Amino acid sequence: MSSRSPSKRRETDLMKLMMAGYEVVMENDESAADFYVTFDGPKGTFYEGGKWKVHVRLPMEYPYKSPSLGFVNKIFHPNVDETSGSVCLDVINQTWSPMFDLVNIFSVFLPQLLSYPNPSDPLNGEAASLQLRDSEKYKATVCEYVAKYATAAKSEGSTGTTEDEEDDKAMSELSELSDANFDDDDELLMAMDD
User: Are the beta carbons of 67 and 59 closer than 8 angstroms?
Assistant: First the structure.
């Protein structure tokens, strides 16, 4: 087996992640070391139906050193810090191996984290305490966070309308303009300005 340079491995793992169907947005076009991945809540969990943007930073020593992960939009989970989004996950923080890759993180490790929270090793004490004390209230809070912060069409800093609604409105306005009869280009331009 031939050894690969860490930079080649980063590029290969990133390509495999995209080929596995994950949406990947690069932070910087020149570097495959800083990017965002859209991650869906696992089916059959309280997180199902949610979409999270996860910030991934690959160290120069990747894959020999683990990546750092952080949820960008809020998530209520005992092992995720609500403020920073950082993740408490043994396989990332302590037992990382170069045999793992980015696809493992998003198809196995994060789904397992959301499916089996560990309240005995919390980053979010409130979530851990609630999970242990009142499982129904914990479930309700998780679902509230999913609806409020992780619905697919929500965008950060939104004014209450989703990107899809804004796109639909713009397409509708264009359609109305194209259906209208204008005698000249000046009338069309004035209608578009309105």
Answer: yes
Extract long-range pairs of 129-137: CB within 8 Å, 24+ residues apart.
131/78
Residues noted as catalytic: 88
Residue 12 burial class via C-beta count within 10 angstroms: exposed 0-12, middle 13-18, buried 19 and up:
middle
The class level of CATH for 6-149 reads alpha beta
**pLDDT tens track for 37-58:** 999 999 999 999 999 999 999 9
Contact 54, 71 (CB under 8 A): yes
Contact by Cβ (8 Å): 123, 78? yes
Please write the tens of the pLDDT for every residue from 54-97: 999 999 999 999 999 999 999 999 999 999 999 998 888 899 99
**107-138 burial code (b ≥16 CB/10 A, e <16):** bebbbebbeebebeebbbeebbebbeeeeeeb
Tell me the C-alpha distance between 6 and 60, whole Å: 7
Domain boundaries in the chain? 6-149, 163-193
Q: Which residue has the higher pLDDT, 78 or 160?
A: 78
